Amino acid sequence: MDQQTLTTDQPIYSYKPSLLGAPWEFRLTPAGLVWEVGRHSGHVAYQNVRMVRLLFRPTTMQTHRFVTEIWPQDGPKLTIASTSCRSMIEHERQDAAYRNFVTALHRRIGAAGINTRLVSGKPGFLYWPGLVVFAVVALALGALTVQGLRTQFWWGAAFVAGFLALFLWQIGGYFRRNRPGTYRADDLPRELLPRG
């Protein structure tokens, strides 16, 4: 079930979100998106897709993980992730298959000629307060580094500076990729798709 095939008319993508959960399988048909999770399944016509959101959403075991959320007019939110759980500690990246499937989905939504909202990143009410907290913590770590240098506490300053660099790289990358915005079905944001 975790195999991806990309045919010209009905691309298929599947992934397993957790070790114990059922795999999710998605198929693009001429009429819409067909999904199956364990014993549950459904169909969403392209013209009934109200919103699509692209996100960068790393987790503890999946640091390079992208997510597409599909919000139909009726029915549950559907989530497609770029990684699949293989074991307790192993998560497989499916970059190319995910990128191809999400791109094909957007092509079909665009061809349906509807006004689906295509949004990127986190919702603004979550993003902007989080960015403020990120900036405050980064400034505080920078001030601690400077204070350590002033008092000639070299090891402490080096440790805090190293932590600051890691913090800016990891959390800064998250905020850079997840900035709220919109996009077009024929121009997907590159920072929210894995290279494939």
Protein architecture, described:
The chain is an alpha+beta fold. It folds into two domains: about 10-120, PH-domain like, CATH 2.30.29; about 125-175. About 35% of the residues lie in helices and about 25% in strands. The protein has three helices and eleven strands; from the N terminus they run E-E-E-E-E-E-E-E-E-H-E-H-H-E. The chain has helices at about 95-110, 125-150, 155-175; strands at about 10-15, 25-30, 30-35, 40-45, 50-55, 65-70, 80, 85, 90-95, 115-120, 180. The protein has a five-stranded mixed sheet, covered by helices on one side. Strands 1-2-3-4 form a four-stranded antiparallel sheet, covered by helices on one side. A hairpin with a 3-residue loop joins strand 2 (about 25-30) and strand 3 (about 30-35). The protein starts with 11 loop residues before the first strand and ends in a 14-residue tail after the last strand. The model has no long low-confidence stretch (mean pLDDT about 90).
